[in-house]
Write a structure and sequence with these properties.
Chain lengths: 243, 354
């Protein structure tokens, strides 16, 4: 983002190779990169430098990455993007449930990394109070519009007739567009903390929603599945017009 | 490992009770015929002891059987009947014979089992060594090219064009290595004592995610899926089946020269859901069909492709599907190219309609 002050990105990663890659990429994109390989050092830096975004590798030598998320979330909402290996869906879901904002799976390219950082920064800059959602009472992406005032979802201007439960799911995903919502988080928000952990009902609702919203449920445009973790609502890309 | 130990104890105990009970019953039935000292009882119990020692694990059960056998012979089937008489002249001999029989047979059984175990381990080592050799071979070539390209970039003065070409090469090779390692990681999710983690997954979600990831590849083809109206909830490890689909799609774009499109057909048969990945490329030659899947064929489509082969990818697919209780087969597609069909066990449930 071209501004007077560079956004500060803290990179917490112990592998020197990945570190160099992250630092170079982030630096070249115009951010101010701060790098550390130690968890305890990272906590100090977060307190003293107040970075705008944190890239966190969960596997650190001196501290469990989840510990860092937990202690950071005690006092700040600074966006945290977790860098994780594939094959550890539970870890990803666990990190998100602890308060991480997003994750990126190793290996990844520069474009993908920068997209996640931009998305994470955007979420802090446009909170629910001053975002489009609060201004217009609706969330739009592509031909989809979630109207929070009328409690309806429109596709190409047509009401898609969701059931009340289906609307609540879409509304929730729309409010967190671009972010992965874990099954656990969705269930908790929709049916309260006492709901059983069986996410089958949620899956069936999602399949029905997909049939109503997506032209081709096998190649969705609006709601994506993160296998083993949860769902993600598509986010309006930056070049897409507002209306 | 507590559970199997318990189970083995119960299995051994059950067999012990069955065999010894049968021996008592048989001897009792026979003793009705001839009410004198029962000479056959001894024979029946020696047989019973031998059987227990053969079918149970370790020595303890056989020894217990021989002690119980001696006791039974003495107590029930030898004069005085229904009384224990240690002064009975043949008694020490009976004990000794039964003990020796049980120990001999237990020893033999244990030895045979140990040899089987050893053979099994040697076999497994061999498979492991072959797999390692195949992997090392698969990753050496791209590594060599990455090393060469990066050293050229570092040490030589190159034109910007040449530089870009080398960098693209490094990128391509690294992506290939990523694919190989993802496949290897997939296998570790369910081998080496790790059980497959099956959960009910909505099939279209897995397919959607696999297509999304495949479509990020630089040389991907459009994928056409025929979607069943019903929601299919299939028990599986979602990440692994996603990997299978990506491998099968990759296989088309890597090997089916001239293919323009991938079709994914989904159908249900009693007890299973069948997925078929098809293309309109040249297809797999008939003489190769059978060898395509086991990874032994390293020059699949050699006329159309360079040094790389997805032999490892397809054999990973097959291992994953077999671990799910399904199977993978190769054939011809109605679209003109190859068809790789696999099925997964699936029980239809009516409850998900609407």
């Amino acid at each position: 983002m071209p501004g007077d002050i560079k956004s500060k990105v803290l990179i917490i990663e112990d592998d020197p190779g990945i570190c160099t890659f992250l630092k170079t990429t982030v630096g070249a994109a115009g951010y101010d990169a701060i790098v550390t390989g130690s968890g305890s050092h990272a906590l100090n830096i977060i307190a003293s430098h107040c970075p705008d975004c944190i890239l966190l590798d969960l596997g650190l030598p001196d501290m469990d990455g989840c510990e860092i998320i937990r202690s950071v979330r005690k006092w700040t909402q600074t966006p945290i993007v977790v860098i994780s290996a594939r094959s550890t869906e539970e870890d990803k879901a666990g990190a998100l449930d602890l308060g991480a904002d997003d994750y990126i799976t190793k290996p990844f390219g520069a474009v993908e990394l920068l997209a996640r950082i931009r998305a994470a920064l955007r979420h802090t800059h446009t909170t629910a109070e001053d975002g489009e959602l609060a201004l217009t009472g609706s969330y739009r992406v592509g031909e989809l519009c979630v109207d929070y005032k009328k409690r309806r979802v429109f596709l190409r201007g047509q009401d898609v007739h969701l059931t009340p439960n289906e609307f609540r799911i879409v509304a929730l995903l729309g409010r967190h567009a671009g972010q992965v919502m874990t099954y656990k988080a969705l269930l908790r928000e929709l049916w309260g903390p006492s709901v059983s952990m069986d996410n089958k009902i949620l899956r069936v609702h999602m399949a029905n929603i997909r049939r109503k919203l997506e032209q081709n449920p096998n190649q969705p445009r609006y709601i994506f599945t993160e296998v083993g973790v949860g769902y993600r609502m598509a986010e309006r890309s930056e070049d897409e017009p507002t209306d | 490992m507590e559970q199997p130990k318990y189970r083995r104890f119960f299995r051994n105990g059950l067999l012990f009770l069955l065999i010894m009970g049968a021996a008592v019953a048989l001897s009792m039935a026979l003793s009705g015929i001839n009410d004198d000292n029962n000479p056959f009882a001894m024979a029946v119990f020696i047989l019973a002891v031998a059987l227990v020692a053969r079918v149970s694990d370790g020595y303890l059960w056989g020894i217990a059987a021989s002690l119980l056998g001696t006791f039974c012979v003495n107590y029930i089937f030898t004069y005085p009947f229904w009384a224990f008489d240690v002064t009975y002249p043949g008694y020490p001999l009976t004990v000794a014979v039964m003990l020796i029989v049980s120990i001999l047979i237990s020893a033999l059984t244990t030895q045979i089992k140990r040899q089987e175990q050893l053979r099994f381990e040697i076999e497994r080592e061999k498979i492991r060594a072959n797999l390692l050799r195949a992997i090392a071979h698969d990753i050496r070539t791209p590594l060599a090219s990455i090393l060469g390209a990066s050293s050229a970039l570092r040490e030589q003065k190159l034109s910007p064009n040449d530089q870009t070409e080398l960098i693209d090469g490094i990128h391509r090779d690294a992506q290939w290595l990523v694919r190989v390692t993802e496949n290897l990681l997939s296998i570790t999710r369910f081998t080496g004592g790790v059980a497959l983690k099956k959960e009910d997954e909505v099939l279209e979600e897995i397919i959607g995610s696999a297509i999304l990831k495949y479509r990020r590849r630089p040389a991907c083809l459009p994928v056409e899926v025929d979607t069943p109206e019903r929601i299919l909830m299939v028990p599986m490890d979602g990440v692994l089946i996603e990997q299978v689909l990506i491998n099968l799609f990759d296989n088309v774009s890597d090997h089916a020269a001239g293919a323009s499109r991938i079709w994914l057909h989904i159908s249900t048969e009693p007890g299973r859901v069948v997925l078929s990945v098809e293309d309109d490329g040249p297809g797999i030659p008939k003489d190769r069909l059978s060898r395509v899947l086991d990874g032994s064929l390293t020059d699949l489509h050699s006329q159309t492709d360079d040094r790389r082969n997805m032999g490892i990818g397809l054999s990973v697919c097959r291992s994953i599907i077999r671990a799910h209780g399904g199977d993978l087969s190769a054939g011809r597609s109605a679209h003109g190219g190859a068809a790789l069909r696999f099925y997964l066990p699936y029980q239809e449930e009516e409850a998900y309609a609407g």
